[in-house]
Specification:
275 residues; mainly beta; 20 strands
Length: 275
């Protein structure tokens, strides 16, 4: 196999669900969007609650957790707080998340935000289908009234997708000059010293290659596009909201006929190789 280019990253993660074995020292997880199990995010609100689908972990335990949230068209929450900080990425529709008195900032697909623990806010959505990816570093994930608000020292971040800063071979030295449109955007953490990090990878239309985990844990969520994921049996279309992950040294075979964006969370080194 001829290697046309190589990209190396250092980031962070864990692993979960439907495991595909890849040797004694590694395992791979693939969860398709259509197979996600949904339940109320806040059961106390009954039918008014957004729906949540777990990708990994358990938001009702102390585990780090990644899950999807689907909001009905026109959804708007009461002002509230959470006991834990969370990070979010819009997958479809438009999401507003801010102080109850703030002017609406409708974030489209590919936008990123953080919500500090203890800070009062509302969350709203508009669009026929509104889905966001949410992750927490520890649970349980709880909703509480604003009279229990507190300041944990963090400040919220709202980044519209148009303001995401993409880097490529022209401005980062560790991407080979023949990378042909592969880009990366750092969202949080530091890509060094095996620290926990989150980033977006943008694969150009026509990409065919692999994401290699060098031995750490890796978790990835499809944000945009319809890439193909190669299992031992066949190619699977991994629509937005689908999740794949690994533990140990693993090759994730990826191809895409349209431009695709994938969120990656990992500890340790990984590589993107175009075949």
């Amino acid at each position: 196999m001829e290697m046309k280019y190589l990209i190396v990253f250092t980031f962070a993660s864990l692993c979960a669900m439907n495991t595909l074995a890849q040797g004694d020292k590694s395992s791979t997880t693939l969860l398709l969007a259509e197979d996600i199990q949904w339940s109320p995010l806040n059961p106390a609100r009954g039918d008014n609650s957004p729906q949540a689908g777990t990708l990994w972990g358990d938001r009702n335990s102390t585990d780090p957790t990644g899950f999807l949230v689907e909001f009905k068209e026109g959804f708007s929450s009461p002002a509230h707080i959470h006991n834990v900080t969370y990070k979010g990425i819009v997958i479809s529709g438009l999401v507003h998340n801010d102080d109850p008195n703030a002017e609406s900032m409708w974030m489209p697909a590919g936008s990123f935000w953080t919500q500090p623990a203890g800070e009062g806010h509302i969350t709203a959505a508009k669009g026929k289908k509104n889905v966001a990816f949410i992750e927490i570093e520890e649970g349980p994930y709880l909703v509480k009234p604003t009279d229990q608000a507190f300041d944990n020292g963090e400040r919220p971040v709202n980044v519209d997708q148009s303001n995401i800063v993409w880097l490529d071979a022209s401005n980062i030295k560790w991407i080979d000059q023949n990378s042909d449109g592969v880009k990366v955007a750092f969202l949080w953490g530091k890509p060094a010293n095996d620290e926990l990090n989150g980033s977006l990878i943008k694969l150009p239309a026509g990409f065919n290659g692999e994401i290699l985990s060098s031995g750490g844990s890796l978790k990835a969520v499809v944000i945009q596009g319809s890439p193909q994921y190669r299992t031992k049996k066949k190619n699977q279309t991994i629509a937005p909201g689908s999740y794949f992950g690994s533990k140990g040294k693993t090759s994730h075979q990826i191809s895409s006929q349209d431009e695709s964006t994938i969120y990656v969370r990992t500890i340790g080194q990984y590589e993107i190789i175009k075949n």
